[in-house]
């Protein structure tokens, strides 16, 4: 079992206390260190260019929406880098990069295709932005107990990238934005006098339910492939799956804070790693 270095955990709690104090100040700014990672910027720019070059859609409107969404994603990562929101050459991102490199070495399909970033955000989350970018927040890293558990989370997010789930969702969004028949039905419904809300629900709810179904399928697929990726390494699966209980505890904390009138948590920006129920089903 690979335990995190004690000095890293001790240093994190010192840093966390400092950030908690700083956030009470109106003039709070993120701590600036040398985070201008040229390799990160080159990586995301190159992948974005590949996306544009291989996008063969004839519909210029759909193409424009997709490129705009992908461009926004690129700008987000650039903001992370340029605003000092990422750890670079620190003990924290060195741990994350070490685990990621072990996974990639054991799964060569990801060689030169994945970059894993460590965010200063204290929100306990990790996520895949698509195009080979995985982000782990310090808020989650601080609650993970072993490298095995971190490895399972990274494998799950890499699996999302392998299946292009984020890119597929962008494509799906663009298709719905340009669905002329749906727009025509909505406009027609809005002009009616009676039961407008019910009729709009009848039009829109099936699409929402379909999105939810595909979201669950995506998570199930990421869980399945994530386990395969982890099994190709020497990380301990029995210890790794204990992270599911940690994620459950995070969920419970979120629920309590969302119901608390004194909550200061940014609810809309407090997502969780979607790893758990489907993973349990695979392990039964």
How would you portray this structure in words?
The protein is mainly α and 284 residues long. It has one domain (6-283). Helices cover 64% and strands 5% of the residues. It has a three-stranded mixed beta sheet, sandwiched between helices. The chain is globular and about 60 Å long. The relative contact order is 0.11.
Give a short synopsis of this structure:
This protein has 284 residues and is mostly helical.
Keyword list:
284 residues; mainly alpha
Strand order of the largest sheet: 1-3-2
Approximate strand percentage: 5-15%
How helical, in percent, are the residues? 55-70%
Q: What does the average pLDDT come to? A: 75
Oligomer description: single chain
Number of domains: 1
**What ranges have pLDDT less than 50 throughout 5 or more consecutive residues?**
9-36, 261-272, 280-284
Class inferred from helices and paired strands: mainly alpha
SSE arrangement:
Layout: H1 6-22, H2 38-54, H3 60-82, H4 91-106, E1 115-119, E2 126-130, E3 133-137, H5 138-141, H6 147-162, H7 165-177, H8 180-190, H9 196-231, H10 237-240, H11 243-259, H12 277-283
Parallel strand pairs: 1-3
Antiparallel strand pairs: 2-3
